[in-house]
Amino acid sequence: MEKLEGKIALVTGGTTGIGLAAAKLFAAEGARVYVTGSNPQSLQAARSELSGVAEVIASDAGSAADIAALAQRFADSGGLDVLFLNAGVAKFGAIESMSEQTFDDTFRINVKGPWLSLKHFAPVLRKGGAVVMNTSINNQLGMGGSAAYAASKAALRSLVRVAAGELAARGVRVNAVSPGPIETPLYGKLGFGAEQLQGMAQGLVAQIPLGRFGTPDEVAKSALFLASNDSSFMTGEEIVLDGGMTRV
């Protein structure tokens, strides 16, 4: 039997990277899948790649109006079983040089967006449903230049715990996947040049006992575990996928 047979699943930020891999895997495991994104180019590419696999919806993960409208869409169609809050941004820079706008944008998308999603989707999630959030190992590290990103992911980790407690009575579980360095397009959006990115990648690999970056598929498999009945006695938990970087 497929792990998500007959389930309705929504993946935010599902047009690239981890979200895209999760959308494909959830569909392969029997779910009817919807993904969101806000970049026109990524949306167009995803509609082509996910044709016959998932429905792609234009929706800003940090917009209150978009999130409310999205939740209403699922409320009108009968509800939702799996909510993978994967969308996020990573903007790096020293505390003294980062703009206030960059900090605000990071929290709008990485924290306020998931909070709004929980607020609007809580009544829509059916009993036995699962919420999975995408945090990061940066929520427990003091990596230079990561202040806004790390703080936003630490806030998200706390939100997982609170939401798990609040939604338990509804029969809905809330957990998180916490990736370390993963081979996704996100690394190309950090605002660094090619040489800086290469140097950063080499430095990170040197800190990973398994000696490599992870893949989106590896994170998607853990998201599937948390979304399915395989993790039926887990809530408020965070699964770390970092090749041993923070564990060994």
List keywords for this structure.
17% strand; alpha/beta; Rossmann fold; seven-stranded parallel beta sheet
Structure description:
By secondary structure, the protein is an alpha/beta fold. It has a single domain (8-239), classed as Rossmann fold (3-Layer(aba) Sandwich). The chain is 41% helix and 17% strand. The chain is built from seven helices and seven strands; from the N terminus they run βαβαβαβαβαβααβ. A seven-stranded parallel sheet has the order 3-2-1-4-5-6-7, with helices on both faces. The mean pLDDT is 94.
Structure summary:
By secondary structure, this protein is α/β, with parallel strands linked by helices.
Please outline the helices and strands.
Blueprint: E1 8-11, H1 17-28, E2 32-37, H2 40-49, E3 54-58, H3 64-76, E4 80-85, H4 100-121, E5 125-134, H5 147-167, E6 173-179, H6 194-205, H7 216-227, E7 238-241
Parallel strand pairs: 1-2, 1-4, 2-3, 4-5, 5-6, 6-7
Helix pairs in contact: 1-7, 3-4, 4-5
